[in-house]
Design brief:
Chain A has a domain of 285 residues. In chain A, helix 1 packs across helix 6, helix 7 runs antiparallel to helix 10 and helix 12 packs antiparallel against helix 13. In chain A, a hairpin with a 4-residue loop joins strand 7 and strand 8. Chain A is an alpha+beta fold and 528 residues long. Chain A contains 16 helices and eight strands. The C terminus of chain A is likely disordered. By secondary structure, chain B is mainly alpha-helical. Chain B has one domain. Chain B has four helices and no strands. In chain B, helix 1 runs antiparallel to helix 3 and helix 3 runs antiparallel to helix 4. The radius of gyration of chain B is 14 Å and the shape is elongated. The termini of chain B are far apart. The chains are: A alpha+beta (528), B mainly alpha (90). The interface between A and B is medium-sized, with 33 and 32 residues.
């Protein structure tokens, strides 16, 4: 592999270790929630007991939309976004773009949610951020996604923080590649009975080596998403559009054409939806209408990648005539390498380009990243076990975060299930996380040994995982027969996954031997 | 890309990864197992064979399948190593 001079290798080891130990715990939180967030949509369906399978775009909605547009002030006809909400209900957001006094660009308007019978079940006025917060049926999946995206730190700081964490993961991956002298020779070497340093080193390097290409991909795409809106867009807007972000958005993502503000009724959107499904082979994930009710109205439908492709598909329609115009690149009016690269960032990061199979693989890769981060922190600690007393607090912190975070997330899920019928999940999901976290932190520092607390946490997490499926049923969730009959196999599948994961964790804890723990074996040898 | 074909492709690579793991000379040496394990030529052949499904998907121009197969290859390779370590300890 790559052979660096000795002093450079030492420098790289220091960079690798210190970047990991300084940001590793936060990175672990982002990676763990990211792993779970791969299945955010499925977790949303499972937790809320959604059993509808027909997309809102497969039902007629054009007449309802015309009716809603007549009820909405014309100033909010600048744009209309259509998407699925809740249990395949239709969400419609009529809005216009406004710049807040602090310079922030927002979408403000009226949001409607339509039930399956076309009746309005919810109506709200506000900005996109205000309207699209967590709801009673999405609080759990929203919590997971929010933790992953910005660690619940307000924007833009949360995004900047997770962007920096992504970069630190990139640094760790590159430095790890450079310092590992026998990358391929050691790929199957895992000495479980070796001393703690070798044991942890093998665990860390084996998982790191196998998942290395994807560590680059996930870290890079994650940083891209974090920095895109917080740094990239403002800089480009400043350099090329005099700071006008809206002008940049229109130039880069909008549809070019001569403005024609003549009032013309919107065309038959049911026909647009049907045609887009035929062309893309799948229902739209999103539909947006520019200049609703004008002669120059344009409709864009967004779809998952076609079979074998990675880039999502966007189709452009003439809004007034409801006729197909062209397949639209993500960026600019014509296909380009940059546009394709930008388009594949999302599927590469979320693994959502080929349904459940690609998501399952991305979940496995996310698990490997969690494992690499956690064992890296453990390795750093056991290498310094001679200073065991002074680093005891860090050892306990690693246990608290490493095993306490999964525990708190499972507590969150249990709290969500209990609060769902009461309509208070938005409050109880994060509150349960905070209560569980506080308990774990207090327990972690008060428990006599870190190893004992680690076993307790794993057993508690496992027990809760096994309890989730019955809890879901007890709180009114659909049974397996109902879910399968309704075409929602994901509900029993996740139940089984929780039962298996809980059982596997109990088996692991019972199988683990105390002599492997760093607490019980302080005498170390060199790792290299 | 069909799911069954993809699962078959990953299973094919898994079988070869298990063979590679069992005959890995470094692993056998560290575990003090008898025999030297596979020679370099056999290892290269097994590695090339294990990569065949990915190459096939790449030649067919199926980018999504290449990524899924490669991701699956990475996860399975890691699990094979973990399982071998677990199994060798009894």
């Amino acid at each position: 592999m790559i052979h660096l001079p000795k002093h450079e290798t030492k420098l790289m080891v220091a960079v690798h270790g210190w970047s990991g130990i300084l940001l590793g715990l936060l990175l672990y939180a982002v990676v763990t929630t990211g792993m779970a967030a791969v299945f955010a949509e499925e977790i949303g369906t499972w937790s809320a007991g959604h059993v509808s399978y027909q997309s809102a775009f497969e039902r007629p909605f054009a007449d309802d939309l015309r009716r809603l547009s007549a009820q909405t002030p014309a100033k909010y006809h600048e744009g209309a976004d259509l998407f699925e909400m809740g249990d395949h209900d239709m969400g419609v957001f009529f809005h216009r773009h406004e710049t807040e006094p602090d310079g922030e660009l927002v979408s403000r308007g009226v949001y409607y949610q339509l039930g399956k019978d076309g009746q309005v079940t919810d109506r709200q006025f506000g900005t996109g951020e205000e309207i699209f917060g967590p709801r009673n049926d999405t609080a759990l999946s929203s919590f997971l996604v929010d933790t992953h995206v910005r660690l619940h730190v307000p924007n833009p700081w949360g995004l900047l923080l997770t962007g920096i964490l992504g970069l630190s993961m990139l640094v760790a991956a590159i430095s790890g590649l450079l310092i590992h002298r026998h990358l391929f020779k050691d790929v199957f070497t895992l000495r479980r009975k070796a001393n703690p340093v070798l044991f942890n080193r093998d665990r860390h390097s084996v998982a790191g080596t196998w998942s290395l290409p994807f560590a680059f991909i996930l870290a890079f795409t994650g940083s891209f998403f974090s920095f895109f809106g917080t740094i990239g867009v403002p800089i480009v807007a400043m350099a090329a559009f005099g700071g006008d972000v809206q002008a940049l958005n229109e130039a880069v993502f909008g549809t070019p054409g001569k403005p024609d503000p003549r009032p013309v009724a919107i065309g038959n959107l049911d026909r647009v939806a049907t045609d887009s499904i035929r062309r893309a082979g799948d229902v739209p994930t999103f539909m947006t209408i520019e200049n609703f009710g004008r002669a120059d109205a344009k409709v864009t439908t967004f779809h998952a990648p076609t079979n074998g492709g990675l880039a999502p598909v966007s189709l452009l329609y003439d809004g007034a005539k409801a006729s197909f115009i062209a397949t639209k690149p993500l960026i600019g009016p014509k296909p380009s390498a940059g546009g394709t690269l930008a388009a594949i960032m999302s599927p590469l990061h979320f693994g959502n380009f080929a349904g459940l199979l690609s998501k399952a693989v991305w979940f496995g890769l996310g698990f490997a990243m969690c494992y690499v981060t956690f064992t890296g922190l453990k390795l750093w600690l056991v290498r310094r076990a001679a200073q065991a007393r002074s680093l005891d607090w860090l050892d306990r912190t690693v246990t608290i975060v490493g095993l306490g975070l999964p525990f708190a997330l499972v507590v969150c899920a249990a709290a969500f299930l209990i609060a769902l019928p009461l309509g208070s999940t938005v409050y109880w999901t994060p509150t349960a996380f905070l209560i569980a976290s506080t308990t774990v932190i207090a327990g972690g520092f008060l428990w006599p040994t870190s190893a004992g607390f680690s076993r307790l946490l794993q057993l508690a997490t496992a027990g809760l995982m096994i309890a989730l499926p019955p809890l879901r049923l007890l709180t009114g969730g659909p049974g397996w027969a109902t879910a399968l009959a309704a075409g929602q196999p994901i509900i029993p599948a996740l139940d089984v996954a929780f039962l298996l994961a809980g059982g596997w964790m109990i088996w692991r804890v019972r199988d683990s031997r105390p002599h492997r723990d760093s607490d019980t074996l302080p005498s170390l040898q060199a790792a290299e | 890309m069909t799911i069954l074909l993809m699962l078959a492709a990953i299973a094919f690579s898994t079988a070869l990864l298990v063979l590679l793991c069992r005959g890995d000379p470094k692993r056998r040496r560290t575990l003090r197992q008898s025999g030297k394990g596979h020679g370099p030529a056999l290892r290269r052949l097994l590695v090339a064979l294990s990569l065949l499904p990915g190459v096939g998907y790449a030649v067919a121009g199926d980018a999504a399948a290449v990524l899924i197969w490669f991701g699956g290859y990475a996860v399975v390779g890691w699990f094979v190593t973990l399982s071998a370590a677990q199994w060798q300890d009894g």
